[in-house]
Amino acid sequence: MNLDFSQIVPYIPFMLKGIGVTLGFVSVSILFGFVLGTGFALLKISKVKGLVWFADAYTSIFRGTPLILQLMIIYFAVPQLTGYDMPPFLAAVLAFGLNSSAYVSEIIRAGIQAVEKGQTEAAQALGIPYRPMMKDLILPQALKNILPALMNEFITLTKESAIVSTISYLDLMRRAQVVGADIYRNFEPLLFVGLIYYFLVMGLSLLGKAMERRLRFGD
User: How far apart are CA 75 and CA 94, in angstroms?
Assistant: First the structure.
């Protein structure tokens, strides 16, 4: 085995810039997915069957098809139909955000339904309108319970973010591919970026555990 990591040293700053690029679009995607997922979660627990069916169908489609297929449709197929030249960043955020919202909606729905029904009944008995009840009473408790699951979703998106390299978005993975093509060696840059992904995921995992401990301490 002939390994030579010295060749990637000049490219290290270029690859390290991919950390901010990756975390940037993943953060925007998870925020978009959280907002949209919360809306779909509320639709799923509504009493209007049409809204429930729509939310369930949405979730089924985005959870039942590969994320990379969704990314390709948004980046390549949508411009074909609309004539709009989709920027890689926007395509990545839309694909990851829409996909994440399907999973987040299920997480939040489960969290809402895990809150004791007595609290909802008490709020209704006091005449508290539905929106303030959800915003100030039910959702805060649900979010506290589902924080670990939401953190896992963020970690999953961070790992899966590597597929945006297929649309030439200069994330960590794409930068490793660029370096590999430039020096005609792929193992070293890929290993280097793989270690970055590992430390990112471990860092996010530790952050999630710290937040969980803080919430438990707050109880």
Answer: 9
The set of residues, in sequence order, having a beta carbon less than 8 Å from that of 204 and lying 6+ positions away, is 151, 154, 155, 158
Mean pLDDT of all residues in 39-56: 92
For 143, residues 6+ apart whose C-beta sits below 8 A from its C-beta are 108, 111, 150
What is the arithmetic mean of pLDDT over 61-69?
96
Domain that holds residue 137: 20-163
**How many other CB atoms are there within 10 angstroms of residue 92's CB atom?**
27
d(CA 22, CA 7): 24
To the nearest whole number, what is the mean pLDDT of the chain? 89
Query: Is residue 192 a part of any domain in this protein?
Result: no
Model pLDDT for residues 183-212, shown as the tens digit of each residue: 999 999 999 999 999 999 999 889 888 887
Residue 121 lies inside a defined structural domain of this protein: yes
DSSP readout, 26-83? HHHHHHHHHHHHHHHHHHHTSS-HHHHHHHHHHHHHHHHS-HHHHHHIIIIIHHHHH-
CATH of the domain at 93: 1.10.3720.10
197 domain-assigned: no
SS3 122: helix
How many Å apart are CA 189 and CA 180, to the nearest integer? 6
